[in-house]
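Hi,

I'm pasting everything inline rather than attaching a file, because the server keeps stripping attachments. The sequence lines come first, and each chain or strand is labelled.
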Amino acid sequence: MAHLPKRLTGDQAAINQFLDQFDIFLFDCDGVLWSGDHLFPGTVETLELLRSKETGKKIVFVTNNSTKSRADYQKKLTGMGIPSNVDEIFASAYSSAIYISRILKLPAPKNKVFVLGESGIETELKSEGIEFIGGTDPAYRRDITPEDYAGIADGSLLDENVGIVLAGLDYHINYLKLSHAYHYLTRGAKFLATNTDSTLPSNHAFFPGAGSISIPLVNMTGQQPIVLGKPSQAMMDSIEGKFQFDRKKACMVGDRLNTDIRFGIEGKLGGTLAVLTGVSKKSEWEAEGAPIVPAYYVDKLSDLMG
Amino acid sequence: MAHLPKRLTGDQAAINQFLDQFDIFLFDCDGVLWSGDHLFPGTVETLELLRSKETGKKIVFVTNNSTKSRADYQKKLTGMGIPSNVDEIFASAYSSAIYISRILKLPAPKNKVFVLGESGIETELKSEGIEFIGGTDPAYRRDITPEDYAGIADGSLLDENVGIVLAGLDYHINYLKLSHAYHYLTRGAKFLATNTDSTLPSNHAFFPGAGSISIPLVNMTGQQPIVLGKPSQAMMDSIEGKFQFDRKKACMVGDRLNTDIRFGIEGKLGGTLAVLTGVSKKSEWEAEGAPIVPAYYVDKLSDLMG
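And the predicted assembly:
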């Protein structure tokens, strides 16, 4: 059985020792910094403490949100009252664009992307100079027609340069888009997903997440996508590729054991810190044979201020 | 290892012995009677032979097609040139309606159905006097709004009498409908699917099937639906409930081992007859350890005419 995590809340010596170990903190956001539209008290001050000259830590906001570009997400942080720099933000749309342009590197011209998703994905693909179709194009936001069936089936309505299908959260998912994506996959396109969260928190409830867009394609093709969001290590590789840090000096902070903490453990980071202000409960890692146990935990993030 | 099937093609004595055993034949359609829009030669004559006074067999057309009511499907048969009676047709939309009204029998008023699907399902639910919402209602064929999020999350936009979510093939699937269906399921509605075929043949290719509509809900809730199409035995129970036949005197005829032939074997019918004009090949049942082996096969259905 794994060691139980060290609780840092109320233990200043342990907090100091904890902070001294790390140069960079990767932060999950919802459930850690805020919940829904409610900013947790002390979030801003805790981030300031980490960034301050005394500690000099690097901060990265890591989110599976695939509908927002980094710039969109910075607006969200600003709206929540959290100062940030766009370079501190790593969202799954950006992670996907980085993966396509810097790791996958399919030879042109067969490297076009068919997108299931919103404008955040398109913005990040453009920022990496990646060609794409689908996405928010109104031409795909309609019912399927007999001409579509014929042209998709015989390929005449498909773009022969599409080499990748990228599935993120698409609020405008429909039968026509699924049909296109399926046919590109059967013709050999690589299958990527920004993230595969089955649900997404909103309005203190859950709604369909990006995994709801990719799962019909998994079911139809029998293929699993390369996933560019937590806990997939393809995302960690992208983060490391961009920030060039020593994994032993990095700590992942999050509220979900099976995404955030798992992401840090499987990425062999020096540490993982769980907070109890989100989804996972202490009882989960205290359970006999708990598969995922963080190295540290605090009741709430601001407990790091001592 | 199971016995290899008896080939009937060209063996009149074996054909006569085969026909003598059965009172009722359950027919899969696409791949057996026709392929796409091409009627196989001899289909009409073979069905006539079975129905004729000399043999006096009962015929049932069994289809997983969930978008059509029995009346719609009869029009399709007529269009293909196949004479039929609406009472000979058993489609998964009808199967679902029968299951809800005669087997599930939830107490009113909490027995309303939220439908993901087309008009065929609505027609069959109406024919059984079942109340429903969703389906082809234009109120659900639109983008989700902030008001929808709030009202779905707090339940104010949900119908408290919905006790069943029925997922069939919905050519107008969207994020709003998936959100409604998901929330009804999390509030305890029973989860039913007309069928779970991941794909559907069309234009000599494949397109998303009814399974593509239910699979995001399976993924979000962790629940499996009760399935009312082949090879689910819930469909066989519905067929038996309606036609009142001796299973030992019934034979399932189909082209797909993993749906049609499996349906007949698991239903403990007296016989199964595979045809080689559709999806499955002879090599599949000849393979070492083949899990599904029909009792009989013909190269093509019209070989039964001898």
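Chain B has a mean pLDDT of 96.

If the labels don't parse on your end, tell me and I'll reformat.
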